[in-house]
Amino acid sequence: MANISYVNGLYCNIQEAKISINDRGYHFGDAVYEVILYSNGIFYDYEEHIKRLFNSLKLINIKFHLSEQQLKIIIKNLFKLNRVNFGSIYIQVSRGVADRNHSYFGLCSKPVLTMIVSKKKNNISDDIKGVKAITMVDNRWSRPDIKTTQLLPNVLAKTFANEKNAYEGIFIDHEGYITEGSSSNIWIINNNNEILTREIDGKILSGITRKTIAKFVKKNNFKLLEKKFTKDELLRSKEVFLTSASSFVTPIIQIDNFKINNGIVGKTSIELRNLYFKNF
Ligand code: PMP
User: Fold this and answer.
1) I want to staple 254 with a disulfide (CB 3.0 to 4.6 A). Which of 132, 155, 217, 227 is the partner?
2) What does the pLDDT read at residue 279?
3) Residue 125 pLDDT class (50, 70, 90 cuts)
4) 88 within some domain
5) Considering the domain boundaries, does residue 126 fall inside one?
6) Same domain, 91 and 141
7) Cβ contact 213:207 at 8 Å
8) Last residue of some domain: 70, 88, 119?
9) Residues 168 and 79 in one domain
């Protein structure tokens, strides 16, 4: 386990790390976050994740005190201290500490930066197993494009999925279209061999892994359509997979009670997963 965390200027053992009980992240989920994959000295899509972090901060008007360069130094130090070869970093910035009050009007709090490194199993082999997913109504707020720590609907969705022995919960909007997973973007390959993932329309998070995989899809002459699709299209797909910094490209072989591709991991999903790991 990685033991050293970073809390507002201090590198400290996780057991000793402290944040204020008046942190607005704790009270209101008034905070944003990123997760970046790390493997043997390489951060996957580092610049894109940091760009999205700064954009999330801007979207909720948090005036962050560190520059991208300062942040990078701390992140690198943290990996050195934890001696992790394959893992990820969780970066959270809250609006800071203040007496509990919904409004932040006129507040001059200093943002609180916390970071945790996690070790991951190095599981990037070819014989990757597919996972199960279940569908559910998308009952989140109307700004899922902001990467905030306020994730209760996602937490409930993932837990519900796990209770049903599934890895991911897939959200469906009120018109019957798939939005995304509780912590991933969803992709299908249809019977015309087109690869579809929902367009960035404000109803999903603009996934960084999604963006990278979209590039590989185009570069490798697959047909990409950034377009929303229905539950029916999802269930009739040749292949389904999800993407995220934590799960990379993970094939989905069963959704609700329907087997995808007879429950066998599809070759295009594997190909894209391998491309993802080979290209960093
Ligand atoms: N959608 C949601 C709701 C997520 O929580 C995540 C992962 N944070 C993603 C998509 C995938 O984003 P990324 O590829 O940047 O990890």
Assistant:
1) 132
2) 84
3) low
4) yes
5) no
6) no
7) no
8) 119
9) no
Distance from residue 21's CA to the centre of ligand 1 (Å) = 28
Mutate to test the pocket of ligand 1, among 185, 210, 213, 215 (most ligand atoms within 8 A of CB): 185
The whole domain housing 99 covers 4-119
Q: Give the nearest ligand 1 atom to 210 CA.
A: 14
272: Cβ contacts below 8 Å, ≥ 6 apart: 213, 216, 217, 241, 249
Query: Among 153, 167, 129, which residue's Cα sits nearest to residue 246?
Result: 167
**211 a catalytic residue:** no
Mutation pick for ligand 1 pocket among 34, 51, 156, 183 (CB with most ligand atoms within 8 Å): 183
- Report if residue 125 sits inside a domain: no
Q: End of a domain among 90, 119, 148? A: 119
Q: What is the pLDDT of residue 126?
A: 59
Q: What is the CA(99)–ligand 1 centre distance, in A?
A: 31
Query: Quick check: 88 and 79 in contact, CB under 8 A?
Result: no
Is 113 part of any domain? yes
Domain count, the chain: 2
User: What are the pLDDT digits (tens) for 181-198?
Assistant: 999 999 999 999 999 999
For 230-263, what is each residue's pLDDT tens digit?
A: 999 999 999 999 999 999 999 999 999 999 999 9
Alpha-carbon distances of 166 from 32, 133, 162, 170, rounded to whole Å = 27, 5, 5, 10
